Amino acid sequence: MNTIYTLADLRDGKKKTRDISPPIRLGVLGDPVAHSFSPPMQNAALQECGLDLQYAAFQITPDELPEALRLMCELDFVGLNLTVPHKIAALAFVDEADERARRIGAINTIVFQDGKSLGRDTDGPGFERAIREEFSVDLSDLRVLLLGAGGGAGRAIAYQGALENCERLVLVNRTFDKAQALARELAGYFSGPRVLGPEARLEAIPWNDPSLRRQLGRTDLVVNATTIGLQQSDASPLAHGLIAPHLMVYDLLYKKTPTRLLAAAAEAGARGANGLTMLLHQGALAFELWFDRPAPLAAMRRALDGK
Ligand code: NAP
Fold first, then answer.
1. Radius of gyration of the chain from Cα atoms?
2. I want to staple 28 with a disulfide (CB 3.0 to 4.6 A). Which of 38, 71, 100, 146 is the partner?
3. Nearest atom in ligand 1 to 36's CA
4. Alpha carbon distances (Å) from 242 to 113, 248, 263
5. Which of 133, 146, 176, 227 to mutate to test the pocket of ligand 1 (most atoms within 8 A of CB)?
6. Are 209 and 189 in contact (CB under 8 A)?
7. Is 159:144 a contact under the CB 8 Å cutoff?
8. Taking the model in full, what pTM does it have?
9. What is the rounded CA–CA span in Å between residue 23 and residue 266?
10. Using 50, 70 and 90 to split pLDDT, how confident is the model at 233?
11. Which atom of ligand 1 is nearest to the CA of 282?
């Protein structure tokens, strides 16, 4: 079980984060954060590389985020990851962000450099690597239906699909306005024809839309980028009857037991995978940004296998 630190610990920074051994100089900020497997994975990477630093989990509410980021910069942190619900909000609080992060409108990684905070996204490329590893296919060859397109991770995945020129992208979100706005932002990437003929390559549809069954018939990969499933009592984000055997189902959530969505996929005879592979690859890319050296992927994978 991770020790969970708070804003109070950062305010008391010297004692709590600097003077413990190895000193905490990296971390993940979330609300909730206890579910995160990033600490054991990143600590395994630090150990493997002989870096005498520690990565910790910080329970930080949205109101506390700006102060937490400022304190971490002052405490000489090397970098951070951001998880639910901070990916979109954090962009406004960093000193700089690269073009990709600005376009996505969300960041999952911060690098502290010369007293400045630099915002980056590694969720998109991490997702692309995860899909190749899990299903032995390239995102560019797929028709993708994305549940939760309005969140930070959903936006990163949608942009990755656009940049990879995937065959087709259907954006589904509870707050429909966000899916529609994202579709407008991405329209330019999908203007060219692909093998599918006259069918629209980019669409936004409301949550639980009656067209979902028809859309799924024209989908190869379904992605759950919602927070549904984080709570034990959550239902599956897709009704059981909608999952057909031809689908690949990727749930960004990772849990010891299969999520409701993945259990439903298995029951339907569809292939499924959980978010551990994305966690691994986005984490490896973040490590490379922090330390400018290759991430020890095998050690990180071993740490997750033990979970
Ligand atoms: P976020 O920014 O808070 O976005 C949450 C998304 O879930 C939004 O699209 C939201 O829709 C939707 N949502 C929440 N409750 C819903 C409900 N009851 N019904 C329908 N939609 C609902 O969160 P995030 O940072 O993108 O993370 C999303 C999930 O991905 C989390 O579970 C996170 O742990 C996981 N994740 C995993 C990895 C990995 O490496 N495996 C990486 C990143 C994220 P609205 O827009 O309508 O609010």
1. 19
2. 38
3. 34
4. 48, 13, 13
5. 227
6. no
7. no
8. 0.96
9. 43
10. confident
11. 40
**What are 113's strand-pairing partners?**
116
Task: Compute the distance between CA of residue 2 and CA of residue 307 in angstroms, rounded to an integer.
Answer: 12
| Whole-angstrom distance, CA of residue 88 vs CA of residue 192 | 29
Provide the token pair at 150. Answer: 């309005």
- pLDDT band with cut points at 50, 70 and 90 for residue 199: confident
Q: What is the pLDDT of residues 41-52, one digit of tens each?
A: 999 999 999 999
Give CA–CA dist 279/191, Å, rounded: 31
Pocket, ligand 1, Cβ cutoff 6 A: 83-85, 87-88, 123, 148, 150-154, 173-175, 178, 207, 225-228, 230, 252-254, 275, 278-279, 282
- Cα angle for residues 76, 91, 189 (degrees, 5° grid): 135
pLDDT of amino acid 17: 66
Q: What are phi and psi of 296, to 5 degrees?
A: -80, 80
Would you state the structure tokens that stand for residue 110, as one six-digit string? 């911060």
Which residues carry out catalysis? 87
| CA-CA-CA-CA torsion sign (66, 69, 72, 74) | negative
User: Is 206 in contact with 216 (CB distance < 8 Å)?
Assistant: no
Q: Name the burial class of residue 75, with classes exposed (0-12), middle (13-18) and buried (19+) by CB atoms within 10 angstroms of its CB.
A: middle
CA-closest candidate to residue 70, choices 110, 104, 40: 110
